Amino acid sequence: MPPAAGIDAHRPATTQGRSDRRDLRTVALRFQEALPRAALSQIATTFPPLLALLAAMHAGLRLGWWPMFVLALPAAGLVVRVFALQHDCGHGSLFRSRRANDAVGRFCSLFTLTPYSHWRRQHAAHHAVWNDLDHRDRGADIYSTCTTVAEYQALGRWRRLGFRAVRHPLVAQLLLPPLVFLVLYRIPFDAPPAWRRERRGVHLTNLALAAAYGGLCLILGFWPMVSVLLAVMVPASIAGVWLFSVQHRFEGVRWIRHAAWDPLTASLEGSSYLRLPPILRWFTGRLGFHHVHHLAPRIPNYRLEDCHNAHPAFAGAHVVTLRDALSAPCYVLWDEVAGRMVTFAEAAGRQPRGRD
């Protein structure tokens, strides 16, 4: 499929054109102010239902395993929503007060198992370099960055096999996400020694988690506590990582060399508008409007949709449907010659002969 077809097939027709894009940042700035009442409403509609579901899961264990598994999916959806709130706190956008954002963000970390300060700084680095081929994240993130076909082909045979194994959808999308949240986030990975505050925050988060879940283990029992935790965190981590991945890497995304990179183009062509049904928009904190978020990260999640609807040029972002999102994890390599994301199978067709 030619690059233009891959991009335009999902974009609604518009007569606005690229010239109207210059107004988007001005429009977006109007939506950056936090609305405390809306933020409190989100907290009230997220944490009490989640706590009620967790209590019901523990109570249901007396009847067998099936009540826990039935309730695990909506509970996992609420944990994803908690992560969306923590994400906004990290951007300083949920509330007007930084102190309020930090307090709520750290409270959220008890449910998401994600150290707040450490994740916030790593995520800020992501916003600084996304879709810039010359300033890509070279750390542990394999979900929002990419490798070019030429870089992949330059690897030796065994390194290519390892590269492919880690990024196979079954591994990257199903096996690794629980390990990231349950294990990797327990250590200050990918954090240089100069990040003293963030490294300390990881250990303090671990202490808080040990106190909270250790106390619950004493009250409810070790295996019931662990069973409910895993039943919720495994699907929540898979859904959260999938959401983050398809926002940045999909068929039709555009990666740009630094000389041509600008935040407006990168927002509309380098991140997705993930079109979700209303119930999933609610659970994901409307982060499917990721093109708006990257243009103005301080817009609270509860204002992203209104900002998207405020200017017709936002409709020029690449639309990713649920069906598209299921195949998106297969697109992991950027073909600079074709100007599009490709799969490993497509890259193999361009493999130079004679390589070992």
Strand content: under 5%
Low-confidence sequence ranges? 1-17
Oligomer: single chain
Helix content: 55-70%
Distance between the termini: 30 Å
Report the structural category: mainly alpha
Spatial shape: globular
Major sheet description: 3 strands, mixed
Instruction: Name the helix and strand elements from N-terminus to C-terminus, one letter apiece.
Output: HHHHHHHEHHHHHHEHHHEHEEH
Mean pLDDT: 89
Radius of gyration: 21 Å
| Strands, count | 5
Put simply, the count of helices is 18
Strand order of the largest sheet: 1-4-5
Element layout with pairings:
Elements: H1 3-8, H2 24-29, H3 36-44, H4 47-60, H5 66-90, H6 98-112, H7 116-129, E1 147-148, H8 149-153, H9 157-167, H10 169-182, H11 196-220, H12 222-246, H13 263-270, E2 272-274, H14 278-283, H15 290-295, H16 304-309, E3 318-320, H17 322-327, E4 333-335, E5 340-342, H18 344-348
Parallel strand pairs: 1-4, 2-3
Antiparallel strand pairs: 4-5
Detailed description of the structure:
By secondary structure, the chain is mainly alpha-helical. It contains 18 helices and 5 strands. A hairpin with a 4-residue loop joins strand 4 and strand 5 (340-342). The longest helix has 25 residues, at 66-90.
List keywords for this structure.
about 350 residues; mainly alpha; three-stranded mixed β-sheet; two-stranded parallel sheet; 5 strands; about 60% helix; disordered N terminus
